[in-house]
Amino acid sequence: MSIARIKKNDTVIVTCGVDAGKTGTVLKVDPKKGVAVVGKLNMHTKAMRRTEKTPGGLVKIELPIRLSKLMPYDADKKCGTRVKTGEKDGKKARVSVKSGKAL
After folding, report:
1. What's the CA gap between 76 and 56, in Å, rounded?
2. pTM score, two decimals?
3. Domain 11-96: which CATH class?
4. Would you state the pLDDT for residue 89?
5. pLDDT by residue (tens digit) across 23-76?
6. Domain ranges (residues) in the chain
7. How large is the C-alpha radius of gyration of the chain?
8. What single string gives the DSSP state of each residue in 38-68?
9. Residue 4 near residue 32, CB atoms below 8 Å
10. Whose CA is closest to 13, among 86, 99, 72?
């Protein structure tokens, strides 16, 4: 079984689009659809109807981003990095190609 390139709670950098160059933390990943929700990125305004519990109005929500537009962020090199499969303590692990450290 292959190891996922991007997982929940990873720090990622957006490679293209409106938010290109910005970093954020992955909140949710849907591998079947090939998308991930990244905190504070790809924000859009949605008009919510007023109910008894909520006041309604305009609410900012995070929309999913395609996984092909995301890259794991290497804090040591301060840039995006590719991921390769390596071993750590005898188990499969994700390793940064640029720094060689486990993610």
Report:
1. 43
2. 0.87
3. mainly beta
4. 87
5. 999 999 999 999 999 999 999 999 999 999 999 999 999 999 999 999 999 999
6. 11-96
7. 17
8. ETTSSEEEEEEPP-SS---EEEEEEPPEEGG
9. no
10. 72
